[in-house]
Amino acid sequence: MPPRLIGPGEAEALAFLIPAALAALAATALPARLAVLACAGALCALLGALGDAAARLAGSSEAARLGPAAGGWIAIGALLLAARLATGRAAMGARGRAVVAIGIAAALGAMLALGLLDNLGLVREAAARGPELRVAFAGHLQLVAAALLPALAVGAACGAIAFAAPRAGTSVMGLLAALQVIPAMALFALLIEPLAALGRAVPLLREAGLRGIGAAPAVIGVFLYLLLPIAAAMRAALGAAPGAAVDAARGLGFAPAQVLWRVRLPLGAPVLLGGLRVAAVQAVGLVTLGALVGAGGFGVLMFQGLGQFAPDLILLGALPVAALALMLDAVLRGLEDGLSPTPEAAR
Amino acid sequence: MRLAALLPVLLFAAALAVLPLTAPVFAALFPDVAEPLYRRESFLSLTLSHGGLVLVSLLPAAAIGIGLGIAATRPGAREVREVADGLVGFAQAVPPVAVIAIAVPAVGFGAAPALLALVCYATLPVLRATTAALATVPPDVLDAARGAGMTPRQVLVQVELPLAAPPILAGLRVAAVLAVATAAVGAVAGATCLGTPIIAGLVNGNPAWVVQGAVLTGLMAFAVDGLLAALAPRDQAGPVSIGSAASRPHSSRLPS
């Protein structure tokens, strides 16, 4: 059943006007740090107003599904964007942004804990599907890890080959780039039959969980896509050390292995971490599509919602994916800043 | 070089011509399947519909991407650039399939959700390529153009855009390949395209249809990539150029 949408007339008018005024004030008048605070406050006020309106509209009916109308979503998006811009204006860096994000998440958590948002359809749906959500979360993380960890090893090796032997490296990187051209849906779908055949031929593998439909095609497909960003980052990382530093190390009598471990890798670490960040964010998104070929994760909820035409369920699958990707991005970006010799320049 | 880039196009055309004749082959490969060849629509009409989705979304995406990219690199437009960066950052966290799924309650099943996601995601590489390319036009050249008495509009049209054209074209190529992939995902929301046999096959337990749809989708991506490589300037045509410049939006964030 499609949800009833909360329009401007149905929440207290002030509840919508106050966040808007706060945000406008923040964008123009306030110093950047206060603007961040104002945007975050406006976001919380807007969510609270939506929860309040939902509580009054839901009234007697337990089955009513209530969600923000398009304007509400646009306002939430605009406030998030305004907060993001203000952090940029305040030159807060990756760590400052992480603090803001944690603050907003904590406020959201507090509102949920106090039951202020309980009557919104999304929250009701989440409460009703607690165990499913936990399974989806664990499944999503497992699939990401299963693709990312082997891709790190193989991709780094490919990148090292590309750096050490540029001629062979060109064809290796060309192959990895060609893989990127294949649409994910086609690659996942094409992997099903060979894996099914392999499972039929080798019963041992089938007992280990290898079937055509399931996690295997998604994990292998995502693994293949992640090779390029990791290999490219590894190649760039190994070349990131200034020639003078490498020369100096050689002059000091460093063996080639020492040059690699004590000069090239430490100096290239932020670049390599950048590749890991790109790969991790990509993995979170790609795994979602894996639900189509029978892998788990949040994609399961999303496709289930699509099948039942249940917008809340679709959002329940999609929002955690976006949050997970943004969080991974922020954490790894913070680490990168910490590793860079000049954090300000790297931001 | 250019002819070699057109090879995937020929391959795709050949596959399209041969596939309708391969019912016996698929019947032998998948003996359990009652209907070994997807016949609800012809592969040609699926391809045309898929190509239509890509074309219809690529034009607005190119216009928005290049326009926003130009606006973001004008002096005094720091805010525009930050808004663009922020939007790109959020968009990259949400996979296209999520955008398509979220759009369904708002715009209904069919081609509309796919088109929405297509425009969003095809804009990103164009925007990124345009801002990057315009930012690398040497300041000396701009000074010389201004010194010669050119108006800002003349500088943009006669100096900046011609110098920035190759990377922008490369961005368009990335956008087109991405659009082929996103259009295929549109099949989950009922868009008619080469992804339709994949979805129909998965839903009905017909692996033959899945293979047919997947092979054509993959070949179409390579064909579009090759077609745009053949159009691009010579030094942009190699397969490595997409490798480093990224063929999907996330890897364009590589710090290289």
TrEMBL record, chain B:
Domain ABC transmembrane type-1: start-end pairs: 47-228
Protein name from the UniProt record: ABC transporter permease
Keywords: Membrane, Transmembrane, Transmembrane helix, Transport
Membrane topology: Multi-pass membrane protein
Transmembrane regions: 51-71, 174-203, 209-232
Origin: domain of life: Bacteria
CDD domains reported in the protein's UniProt record: TM_PBP2
Annotated SUPFAM superfamilies: MetI-like
